[in-house]
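re: ur question from earlier - yeah i can do the single chain one, its not a big deal. heres the input i used so u can compare w yours
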Amino acid sequence: MKLCLLYGGKSAEHEVSLQTAKAVIGALDKNKFDIYPIFISKSGQWIEGPKITEEITNIEQLQLSNKDSSDIIPSSLHTGYDVVFPLLHGPNGEDGTIQGLLEVLNIPYVGNGVLASSAGMDKVTMKNLFAQAGLEQVKYVSYIRSAWEAGRDAAYDEVEARIGYPCFVKPANLGSSVGISKCENRDELIAAFEDAFRYDRKIIIEQGVTAREIEIGLLGNDEVSCSVAGEIVPKKAFYDYEAKYQDGSTELVIPADISEAQYAKLRDMAVTAYKTLDCSGLARVDFFITEDGQVVINEVNTMPGFTPVSMFPLLWKNTGLSYPELIKRLIDLGIERFEEKQKIVHTF
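and the output i got, formated as tokens:
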């Protein structure tokens, strides 16, 4: 099978994507897949590299250049690949843009479609949809940059009145904890607004709660399977970028020490969220269990990381699905969805 891997990307999560690509390439069976890499630079340049036949030992090998590769335009994707696996995180990759291109080119691809990707990327839209579906969440408000610039003090006043402290300020369209700040007072709130607006024109502010962070992995298209639950135990104030990818200062407890009733609640809410966004292929759904036992949904990640320290593959490993088997299952689901969509009639 000719498998094209898209990685890198014009996103603040570019480096995370490189780590994901390295891990996936290492796990693929080279006897079953011909692996063709396409590297997307931070400036948005698409570079097609030679077929990968050996193991990738370091990230630098994945950062292709014009010296050993050919610069391409995205439309050349339609030539010769059986399936595309977008290993892209964040904007310009996980947000429905790449998925829309692949839909137009009518190429099978792994992971969520346009709607789920775009809705899942935008935390404000996602939470509005969850509210419509009746899923319990923490309190939140959002702002666009122009509204904040027109009345900064009014925005801070509203956050303090509606949300209070502690609170978390986040870019609406980013993951991997990039640009996220925890705030305990007005000065920290001001700094957090300014930092988050560096990464997006829209931000979200969420109520901080004392709670356990629990996550579940989902696989499937119309029929969905759930993994065991896992718990994130950060040693810092919250699960930030460094804790996720660099310093290892976080403990992942799998399976999480929760009751059967709590797991059943998490599973039901996760499936509801998955179907609300019309997800396909995969997702990781993140929850909080508060001190009084209340279960609230935090967010859905439509392209969770596949690094060696990532929660999603570890959840499935502890559910009985190895990393190589997980990747093969995702590829099969992508092809299954493609074949299902070919049944749609486009004439009237």
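The domain at 139-207 is CATH 3.30.1490.20 (Dna Ligase; domain 1). not sure if urs matches, ping me
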